[in-house]
Amino acid sequence: MDETRLSRRRLLSAAGAGLAGAVAGCTEPRADNSIEGTSSHEIDRGNLADGSVYTEVYETLIDSVTQVRAFGVNDPVTGEEGRGQGSGFVVDDSHVVTNQHVVAGAEDADLQYINGDWTSTRLVGTDYYSDLAVLEADHVPDAATPLSLADDRPVVGQQVAAIGNPYGLEGSMSTGIVSGVERTLSPPGRQFSFSDVVQTDAAVNPGNSGGPLVDLDGDVIGVVNATSGENIGFAISASLTSRVVPSLIEDGSYDHPYMGIGLRTVDRLVAEENDLSEATGVILTDVFAGEAAAAAGLRGSDGAVEHRGELIPVGGDVVRALDGEPIPDRHALSTFLALETSPGDTITVDYWRDGADRSTELTLGARPEV
Protein backbone atom coordinates (compact mmCIF):
# COMPACT_ATOMS: atom_id res chain seq x y z
CA MET A 1 0.00 0.00 0.00
CA ASP A 2 1.48 3.39 -0.96
CA GLU A 3 2.29 5.97 1.73
CA THR A 4 -0.44 8.40 0.58
CA ARG A 5 -3.15 5.77 0.95
CA LEU A 6 -1.72 4.55 4.24
CA SER A 7 -1.68 8.06 5.69
CA ARG A 8 -5.22 8.72 4.49
CA ARG A 9 -6.50 5.48 5.98
CA ARG A 10 -4.83 6.22 9.30
CA LEU A 11 -6.52 9.62 9.38
CA LEU A 12 -9.97 8.30 8.51
CA SER A 13 -9.63 5.33 10.84
CA ALA A 14 -8.90 7.72 13.69
CA ALA A 15 -11.93 9.81 12.76
CA GLY A 16 -14.17 6.75 12.68
CA ALA A 17 -13.02 5.82 16.18
CA GLY A 18 -14.08 9.20 17.48
CA LEU A 19 -10.60 10.71 17.68
CA ALA A 20 -9.90 14.28 16.64
CA GLY A 21 -9.36 14.25 12.88
CA ALA A 22 -6.99 16.59 11.13
CA VAL A 23 -8.67 18.94 8.70
CA ALA A 24 -6.91 19.24 5.35
CA GLY A 25 -5.57 22.77 4.90
CA CYS A 26 -6.02 24.77 1.75
CA THR A 27 -3.10 26.31 -0.07
CA GLU A 28 -2.90 29.86 -1.35
CA PRO A 29 -3.20 30.10 -5.14
CA ARG A 30 0.16 30.19 -6.85
CA ALA A 31 1.33 33.28 -8.65
CA ASP A 32 1.13 31.65 -12.10
CA ASN A 33 -0.49 33.99 -14.60
CA SER A 34 -2.88 31.26 -15.74
CA ILE A 35 -4.22 30.64 -12.22
CA GLU A 36 -6.68 32.85 -10.41
CA GLY A 37 -9.31 32.84 -7.72
CA THR A 38 -9.87 32.09 -4.09
CA SER A 39 -12.48 29.98 -2.37
CA SER A 40 -14.88 30.36 0.51
CA HIS A 41 -13.53 26.95 1.57
CA GLU A 42 -10.49 28.88 2.89
CA ILE A 43 -12.51 31.08 5.25
CA ASP A 44 -12.33 30.16 8.93
CA ARG A 45 -15.88 30.91 10.08
CA GLY A 46 -15.59 29.44 13.59
CA ASN A 47 -18.42 27.90 15.66
CA LEU A 48 -18.50 24.87 13.37
CA ALA A 49 -20.52 21.75 14.16
CA ASP A 50 -18.65 18.57 15.04
CA GLY A 51 -19.62 16.80 11.81
CA SER A 52 -19.14 13.06 11.34
CA VAL A 53 -16.85 10.51 9.75
CA TYR A 54 -18.20 11.76 6.41
CA THR A 55 -16.91 15.23 7.31
CA GLU A 56 -13.45 13.76 7.81
CA VAL A 57 -13.65 11.94 4.48
CA TYR A 58 -14.69 15.17 2.79
CA GLU A 59 -11.96 17.30 4.34
CA THR A 60 -9.33 14.68 3.55
CA LEU A 61 -10.28 14.34 -0.13
CA ILE A 62 -11.85 17.59 -1.29
CA ASP A 63 -8.58 19.27 -2.33
CA SER A 64 -8.11 16.46 -4.87
CA VAL A 65 -11.56 16.79 -6.48
CA THR A 66 -11.91 19.27 -9.33
CA GLN A 67 -14.59 20.98 -11.34
CA VAL A 68 -14.18 20.38 -15.09
CA ARG A 69 -15.35 22.94 -17.62
CA ALA A 70 -15.12 21.92 -21.26
CA PHE A 71 -15.40 24.53 -24.01
CA GLY A 72 -16.58 24.07 -27.59
CA VAL A 73 -18.88 21.16 -26.72
CA ASN A 74 -21.79 20.67 -29.11
CA ASP A 75 -25.23 20.42 -27.52
CA PRO A 76 -26.58 16.93 -28.39
CA VAL A 77 -30.07 18.36 -29.04
CA THR A 78 -29.51 21.74 -30.73
CA GLY A 79 -26.05 21.10 -32.14
CA GLU A 80 -25.01 24.54 -30.94
CA GLU A 81 -21.59 25.12 -29.45
CA GLY A 82 -21.58 25.60 -25.70
CA ARG A 83 -19.85 24.58 -22.52
CA GLY A 84 -19.85 21.24 -20.73
CA GLN A 85 -19.42 20.87 -16.99
CA GLY A 86 -18.54 17.95 -14.75
CA SER A 87 -16.17 16.72 -12.08
CA GLY A 88 -12.82 14.96 -11.88
CA PHE A 89 -10.16 13.86 -9.41
CA VAL A 90 -6.38 13.78 -9.23
CA VAL A 91 -4.75 10.36 -9.73
CA ASP A 92 -1.06 11.31 -9.82
CA ASP A 93 1.12 14.41 -9.82
CA SER A 94 -0.32 15.76 -13.09
CA HIS A 95 -3.31 13.69 -14.28
CA VAL A 96 -7.02 14.04 -13.57
CA VAL A 97 -9.68 11.41 -14.32
CA THR A 98 -13.15 12.39 -15.53
CA ASN A 99 -15.90 10.99 -17.79
CA GLN A 100 -15.42 10.82 -21.53
CA HIS A 101 -18.81 12.41 -22.13
CA VAL A 102 -17.81 15.47 -20.06
CA VAL A 103 -15.01 16.39 -22.49
CA ALA A 104 -16.23 14.72 -25.70
CA GLY A 105 -15.83 17.09 -28.64
CA ALA A 106 -14.35 19.83 -26.49
CA GLU A 107 -11.74 22.17 -27.92
CA ASP A 108 -10.19 22.64 -24.50
CA ALA A 109 -11.00 22.11 -20.81
CA ASP A 110 -10.18 23.96 -17.60
CA LEU A 111 -10.10 22.73 -14.03
CA GLN A 112 -10.98 24.53 -10.82
CA TYR A 113 -9.80 23.18 -7.48
CA ILE A 114 -11.63 23.82 -4.22
CA ASN A 115 -9.00 26.38 -3.13
CA GLY A 116 -10.00 28.54 -6.10
CA ASP A 117 -7.07 27.73 -8.38
CA TRP A 118 -7.87 27.52 -12.09
CA THR A 119 -5.68 25.71 -14.58
CA SER A 120 -5.72 24.67 -18.22
CA THR A 121 -5.31 21.06 -19.33
CA ARG A 122 -4.34 18.81 -22.20
CA LEU A 123 -6.52 15.85 -23.18
CA VAL A 124 -4.37 12.73 -22.82
CA GLY A 125 -6.83 10.02 -23.77
CA THR A 126 -10.48 8.95 -23.84
CA ASP A 127 -12.31 5.64 -23.86
CA TYR A 128 -15.83 5.68 -25.28
CA TYR A 129 -16.66 2.17 -24.06
CA SER A 130 -16.00 2.86 -20.36
CA ASP A 131 -16.82 6.61 -20.49
CA LEU A 132 -13.44 7.46 -18.96
CA ALA A 133 -11.03 10.23 -19.90
CA VAL A 134 -7.71 11.54 -18.59
CA LEU A 135 -6.60 15.18 -18.58
CA GLU A 136 -3.07 16.42 -17.93
CA ALA A 137 -3.24 19.51 -15.72
CA ASP A 138 -0.79 22.38 -16.04
CA HIS A 139 -1.10 22.96 -12.29
CA VAL A 140 -1.95 20.75 -9.33
CA PRO A 141 -2.02 22.39 -5.85
CA ASP A 142 0.27 20.90 -3.22
CA ALA A 143 -2.75 19.88 -1.12
CA ALA A 144 -4.28 17.88 -3.99
CA THR A 145 -2.76 14.49 -3.22
CA PRO A 146 -3.61 11.65 -5.63
CA LEU A 147 -6.68 9.59 -4.76
CA SER A 148 -6.23 5.83 -4.64
CA LEU A 149 -8.42 3.31 -6.46
CA ALA A 150 -9.80 0.68 -4.09
CA ASP A 151 -8.24 -2.77 -4.24
CA ASP A 152 -11.25 -4.53 -2.69
CA ARG A 153 -14.41 -5.14 -4.66
CA PRO A 154 -17.42 -3.20 -3.29
CA VAL A 155 -20.25 -5.02 -1.53
CA VAL A 156 -23.93 -4.20 -1.20
CA GLY A 157 -24.57 -2.20 1.96
CA GLN A 158 -21.12 -0.61 2.03
CA GLN A 159 -21.20 3.07 3.03
CA VAL A 160 -20.05 5.46 0.31
CA ALA A 161 -19.93 9.15 -0.58
CA ALA A 162 -20.06 10.94 -3.95
CA ILE A 163 -18.00 14.13 -4.15
CA GLY A 164 -18.35 16.53 -7.05
CA ASN A 165 -20.10 19.53 -8.52
CA PRO A 166 -23.79 18.79 -9.25
CA TYR A 167 -25.32 21.60 -11.30
CA GLY A 168 -22.03 23.46 -10.85
CA LEU A 169 -22.36 23.57 -7.06
CA GLU A 170 -18.70 23.18 -6.20
CA GLY A 171 -17.46 20.86 -3.52
CA SER A 172 -20.73 19.00 -2.88
CA MET A 173 -21.02 15.66 -1.11
CA SER A 174 -23.86 13.15 -0.99
CA THR A 175 -23.83 9.91 0.95
CA GLY A 176 -25.45 6.51 0.81
CA ILE A 177 -24.60 2.86 0.34
CA VAL A 178 -23.63 0.55 -2.48
CA SER A 179 -27.02 -0.73 -3.60
CA GLY A 180 -25.84 -3.07 -6.37
CA VAL A 181 -22.66 -4.42 -7.93
CA GLU A 182 -21.59 -5.86 -11.29
CA ARG A 183 -24.39 -4.05 -13.10
CA THR A 184 -24.44 -3.71 -16.88
CA LEU A 185 -25.57 -0.20 -17.77
CA SER A 186 -27.01 0.65 -21.20
CA PRO A 187 -26.44 4.40 -21.62
CA PRO A 188 -28.86 6.42 -23.78
CA GLY A 189 -27.71 6.85 -27.36
CA ARG A 190 -24.95 4.22 -27.22
CA GLN A 191 -25.25 0.84 -28.90
CA PHE A 192 -23.43 -1.09 -26.16
CA SER A 193 -23.34 -1.46 -22.38
CA PHE A 194 -20.94 -0.29 -19.69
CA SER A 195 -19.51 -3.27 -17.79
CA ASP A 196 -18.98 -3.82 -14.05
CA VAL A 197 -20.95 -0.79 -12.90
CA VAL A 198 -21.46 0.03 -9.21
CA GLN A 199 -25.00 1.09 -8.23
CA THR A 200 -25.57 3.51 -5.35
CA ASP A 201 -28.39 5.40 -3.68
CA ALA A 202 -26.08 8.36 -3.01
CA ALA A 203 -27.58 11.30 -4.91
CA VAL A 204 -25.76 12.09 -8.17
CA ASN A 205 -26.89 14.69 -10.69
CA PRO A 206 -25.60 16.39 -13.84
CA GLY A 207 -22.23 17.85 -12.91
CA ASN A 208 -21.31 14.87 -10.69
CA SER A 209 -20.13 12.97 -13.76
CA GLY A 210 -16.44 12.12 -13.53
CA GLY A 211 -16.19 12.66 -9.77
CA PRO A 212 -15.21 9.96 -7.27
CA LEU A 213 -17.50 7.59 -5.41
CA VAL A 214 -15.45 6.79 -2.30
CA ASP A 215 -15.55 4.45 0.68
CA LEU A 216 -14.93 5.52 4.28
CA ASP A 217 -11.22 4.75 3.92
CA GLY A 218 -11.07 7.48 1.28
CA ASP A 219 -10.43 5.07 -1.60
CA VAL A 220 -12.24 5.51 -4.91
CA ILE A 221 -14.58 2.58 -5.59
CA GLY A 222 -15.95 4.09 -8.80
CA VAL A 223 -16.05 7.05 -11.20
CA VAL A 224 -19.53 8.56 -11.06
CA ASN A 225 -21.55 8.35 -14.26
CA ALA A 226 -24.55 10.60 -13.62
CA THR A 227 -27.73 9.44 -15.34
CA SER A 228 -31.33 10.52 -15.31
CA GLY A 229 -32.27 7.74 -12.90
CA GLU A 230 -34.48 8.71 -9.98
CA ASN A 231 -32.95 7.99 -6.56
CA ILE A 232 -30.32 5.78 -8.16
CA GLY A 233 -26.81 6.48 -9.38
CA PHE A 234 -24.02 4.58 -11.09
CA ALA A 235 -20.23 4.58 -11.19
CA ILE A 236 -17.65 2.90 -13.42
CA SER A 237 -15.94 0.48 -11.04
CA ALA A 238 -12.43 0.99 -9.68
CA SER A 239 -11.57 -2.46 -11.02
CA LEU A 240 -12.27 -1.39 -14.60
CA THR A 241 -10.88 2.11 -14.07
CA SER A 242 -7.57 0.63 -12.85
CA ARG A 243 -7.27 -1.20 -16.18
CA VAL A 244 -8.33 1.64 -18.46
CA VAL A 245 -6.67 4.74 -16.95
CA PRO A 246 -3.01 3.57 -17.09
CA SER A 247 -3.51 2.72 -20.76
CA LEU A 248 -5.04 6.13 -21.45
CA ILE A 249 -2.05 7.82 -19.81
CA GLU A 250 0.44 5.64 -21.66
CA ASP A 251 -1.17 5.24 -25.09
CA GLY A 252 -4.20 7.58 -25.18
CA SER A 253 -6.58 4.67 -25.75
CA TYR A 254 -7.72 1.30 -24.42
CA ASP A 255 -8.72 -1.85 -26.30
CA HIS A 256 -11.70 -3.79 -24.91
CA PRO A 257 -12.14 -7.53 -25.56
CA TYR A 258 -14.87 -8.44 -28.04
CA MET A 259 -16.66 -11.71 -28.82
CA GLY A 260 -18.86 -10.35 -31.61
CA ILE A 261 -22.22 -11.53 -30.27
CA GLY A 262 -25.68 -10.37 -29.36
CA LEU A 263 -27.10 -12.05 -26.28
CA ARG A 264 -29.89 -12.31 -23.76
CA THR A 265 -30.00 -13.75 -20.25
CA VAL A 266 -31.77 -17.10 -20.08
CA ASP A 267 -34.85 -16.44 -17.99
CA ARG A 268 -37.79 -18.78 -17.39
CA LEU A 269 -39.45 -18.01 -20.73
CA VAL A 270 -36.24 -18.51 -22.72
CA ALA A 271 -35.59 -21.78 -20.87
CA GLU A 272 -39.10 -23.07 -21.59
CA GLU A 273 -39.06 -22.20 -25.29
CA ASN A 274 -35.60 -23.76 -25.77
CA ASP A 275 -36.26 -26.92 -23.73
CA LEU A 276 -33.59 -26.04 -21.17
CA SER A 277 -33.61 -27.79 -17.82
CA GLU A 278 -32.77 -24.61 -15.89
CA ALA A 279 -32.92 -20.86 -16.39
CA THR A 280 -29.22 -19.98 -16.36
CA GLY A 281 -26.65 -18.78 -18.87
CA VAL A 282 -26.93 -16.48 -21.87
CA ILE A 283 -28.46 -17.35 -25.22
CA LEU A 284 -26.70 -16.02 -28.30
CA THR A 285 -29.20 -14.04 -30.35
CA ASP A 286 -26.62 -12.97 -32.96
CA VAL A 287 -23.16 -14.07 -34.00
CA PHE A 288 -21.54 -11.42 -36.18
CA ALA A 289 -19.77 -12.60 -39.31
CA GLY A 290 -16.00 -12.25 -39.27
CA GLU A 291 -15.77 -11.82 -35.48
CA ALA A 292 -14.37 -14.07 -32.75
CA ALA A 293 -17.51 -16.06 -31.93
CA ALA A 294 -18.19 -16.85 -35.58
CA ALA A 295 -14.59 -18.02 -36.05
CA ALA A 296 -15.04 -20.33 -33.05
CA GLY A 297 -18.15 -21.91 -34.62
CA LEU A 298 -20.73 -20.51 -32.23
CA ARG A 299 -24.29 -20.00 -33.50
CA GLY A 300 -26.91 -17.37 -32.89
CA SER A 301 -30.65 -17.99 -32.68
CA ASP A 302 -32.39 -18.99 -35.90
CA GLY A 303 -35.82 -17.64 -35.01
CA ALA A 304 -38.15 -16.35 -32.34
CA VAL A 305 -41.51 -17.29 -30.90
CA GLU A 306 -44.06 -14.93 -29.40
CA HIS A 307 -45.03 -15.45 -25.78
CA ARG A 308 -47.53 -13.05 -24.23
CA GLY A 309 -46.54 -10.36 -26.68
CA GLU A 310 -42.79 -10.86 -26.18
CA LEU A 311 -40.44 -12.33 -28.79
CA ILE A 312 -38.34 -15.15 -27.33
CA PRO A 313 -35.16 -16.20 -29.22
CA VAL A 314 -34.85 -19.90 -30.00
CA GLY A 315 -32.15 -22.12 -31.41
CA GLY A 316 -29.06 -20.17 -30.32
CA ASP A 317 -26.12 -21.57 -28.39
CA VAL A 318 -26.41 -21.08 -24.62
CA VAL A 319 -23.12 -20.05 -23.01
CA ARG A 320 -22.78 -21.32 -19.44
CA ALA A 321 -19.11 -20.82 -18.57
CA LEU A 322 -16.00 -18.96 -19.77
CA ASP A 323 -12.64 -20.43 -18.75
CA GLY A 324 -14.47 -22.46 -16.11
CA GLU A 325 -16.13 -19.35 -14.61
CA PRO A 326 -19.93 -19.80 -14.38
CA ILE A 327 -21.89 -17.33 -16.52
CA PRO A 328 -25.42 -17.22 -15.05
CA ASP A 329 -26.46 -14.02 -16.87
CA ARG A 330 -25.30 -11.26 -19.21
CA HIS A 331 -23.92 -9.20 -16.31
CA ALA A 332 -21.53 -12.01 -15.38
CA LEU A 333 -20.36 -12.40 -18.98
CA SER A 334 -19.80 -8.67 -19.35
CA THR A 335 -17.88 -8.42 -16.07
CA PHE A 336 -15.70 -11.46 -16.83
CA LEU A 337 -14.68 -10.11 -20.23
CA ALA A 338 -14.05 -6.59 -18.90
CA LEU A 339 -11.93 -7.56 -15.88
CA GLU A 340 -10.35 -10.91 -16.71
CA THR A 341 -9.51 -10.79 -20.42
CA SER A 342 -7.83 -8.73 -23.14
CA PRO A 343 -7.96 -8.75 -26.94
CA GLY A 344 -5.91 -11.66 -28.26
CA ASP A 345 -6.59 -13.91 -25.27
CA THR A 346 -7.87 -17.41 -26.02
CA ILE A 347 -10.63 -18.57 -23.68
CA THR A 348 -12.65 -21.76 -23.32
CA VAL A 349 -16.38 -21.40 -23.95
CA ASP A 350 -18.69 -24.04 -22.45
CA TYR A 351 -22.12 -24.00 -24.08
CA TRP A 352 -25.26 -26.00 -24.71
CA ARG A 353 -26.49 -26.88 -28.21
CA ASP A 354 -29.09 -29.38 -29.42
CA GLY A 355 -29.50 -31.01 -26.02
CA ALA A 356 -25.78 -31.52 -25.36
CA ASP A 357 -22.98 -29.71 -23.52
CA ARG A 358 -20.14 -28.61 -25.78
CA SER A 359 -16.88 -26.67 -25.55
CA THR A 360 -14.77 -24.61 -27.92
CA GLU A 361 -11.75 -22.31 -27.90
CA LEU A 362 -12.30 -18.67 -28.79
CA THR A 363 -9.69 -15.98 -29.43
CA LEU A 364 -11.01 -12.58 -28.44
CA GLY A 365 -10.93 -9.63 -30.78
CA ALA A 366 -11.07 -5.93 -29.94
CA ARG A 367 -14.19 -3.80 -29.90
CA PRO A 368 -14.50 -1.80 -33.09
CA GLU A 369 -13.44 1.85 -32.96
CA VAL A 370 -16.24 4.38 -32.72
From TrEMBL:
Tagged with keyword Cytoplasm: no
Stretches assigned to the PDZ domain: 257-364
InterPro entries, alphabetized: Chloro_Bact_Ser_Proteases (IPR051201), PDZ (IPR001478), PDZ_sf (IPR036034), Peptidase_S1_PA (IPR009003), Peptidase_S1C (IPR001940), TAT_signal (IPR006311)
SUPFAM superfamilies named in the record: PDZ domain-like, Trypsin-like serine proteases
Top EC class for this record: hydrolase
Record GO biological process: proteolysis
A molecular function GO annotation: peptidase activity
Keywords annotated in UniProt: Hydrolase, Protease
Listed EC numbers: 3.4.21.-
Family annotation (Pfam families): PDZ_2 (PF13180), Trypsin_2 (PF13365)
Keyword Protease: yes
Protein name per its UniProtKB record: S1C family serine protease
Species this chain originates from: Halosolutus amylolyticus
Taxonomic path: Archaea, Methanobacteriati, Methanobacteriota, Stenosarchaea group, Halobacteria
